[in-house]
Structure to design on (227 residues):
């Protein structure tokens, strides 16, 4: 099984450009998440989707939008990229109701905004 | 305000010895805690978790201890192996059915052969 798949893996943008990070999971999980990782800041939650049809803000949602397209897919959109959004982005999923509450992560998407 | 803190950015340990990674939290509503390991250019992978109804959970070489009164948890790795060299994140969530997981800033562990 592929688990959580993110595309693209690398992207370079100019300030003001827009782009969408795609995420798909094949584990039939209900909940999906977008995190960003920055040096010294750890993993910070951008948005999450508890179930298909719902989305909620996390710790750092400004400058981002999300779409839960269906149960498998959860996309993250930058409408007007800024250098402060240079980061590594991770998508994750979780099976609702699972006792351990484990998040399964993708391999990450490295975004550079010039 | 950082609700989950890992105050040691890095730690070096000799192979075969114990590695102890620490994590502090401020939100008394947190009741479920996880540890993740991350290698460069890979996504974080789950290691071990603990519920607030327990004070210890063990899985092979990995043991997590929870001290609720001190709002502190620690991950013990015994014996440490060079393959354990990675960044370790602790994470916490609050309340049954919650969906938000808050992560710490991470500790880079280096196990010296």
């Amino acid at each position: 099984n592929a688990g959580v798949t993110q595309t693209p893996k690398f992207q370079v943008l100019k300030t003001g450009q827009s782009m969408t990070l795609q995420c798909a999971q094949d584990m039939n999980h209900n909940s999906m998440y977008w995190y960003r990782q920055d040096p010294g800041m750890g993993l910070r939650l951008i948005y999450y989707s508890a179930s298909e049809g719902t989305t909620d803000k996390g710790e750092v949602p400004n400058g981002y939008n999300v779409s839960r397209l269906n149960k498998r897919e959860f996309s993250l959109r930058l409408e007007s990229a800024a250098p402060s959004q240079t980061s590594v982005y991770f998508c994750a999923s979780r099976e609702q109701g699972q006792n351990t509450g484990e998040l399964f992560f993708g391999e990450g998407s490295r975004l550079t905004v010039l | 305000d950082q609700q989950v803190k890992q105050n040691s950015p890095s730690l070096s340990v000799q192979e075969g010895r114990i590695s102890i990674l620490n994590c502090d939290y401020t939100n008394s509503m947190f009741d479920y805690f996880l540890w993740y390991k991350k290698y460069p250019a890979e996504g974080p992978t789950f290691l071990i978790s603990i519920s607030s109804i327990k004070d210890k959970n063990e899985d092979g070489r990995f043991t997590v201890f929870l001290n609720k009164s001190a709002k502190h948890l620690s991950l013990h790795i015994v014996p440490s192996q060079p393959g354990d060299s990675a960044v370790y994140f602790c994470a916490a969530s609050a309340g049954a059915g919650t969906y938000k997981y808050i992560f710490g800033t991470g500790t880079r562990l280096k196990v010296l052969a």
Q: What stands out?
A: The domain at 4-112 of chain B is CATH 2.60.40.10 (Immunoglobulin-like).
